[in-house]
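Below is how a single chain appears once it has passed through the pipeline. First comes the sequence as given, then the structure the pipeline wrote out for it. We keep one example in the README because the format questions we get most often are answered faster by looking than by reading.
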Amino acid sequence: MRQLSKLEATLMLLGGLLMVVGSGANILFWSWAPYVFAPGALLFVAMQLRQRYEGRDFTIRRLRRIQFISDFLFLAAALLMIANQSNFLGLDMLSYIKYVHNNWVVALLLAAILQLYASHRIANELEKEAK
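Resulting structure:
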């Protein structure tokens, strides 16, 4: 697995911190929260995509695909969080409530669970591969 440089690791940590602050602030109904979460999600996803796996282990490659799905869900959560502020998608009220209103929580929860699982398993598989 390609290791991130010190700057890239710091940017990834900053992105994760911004995501936590943004999601916590959104729960408290602060209007600036999505605009903190979205750049954090972009930073986190960009730095995670820079970590590449050049090996041939099928398990790690599968887990990297799971992380990619998780990254997509983080970005979807950011978009839904911004759309939750105002109906910029142009949906009628019933569709807005059905598809957008507070559904960022579902996307974020799924992304976090997949990220936690994949990160833990990748670390174990890389340790096993090193032995």
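Residues 58-85 form the longest helix (28 residues).

See the next section for the split statistics.
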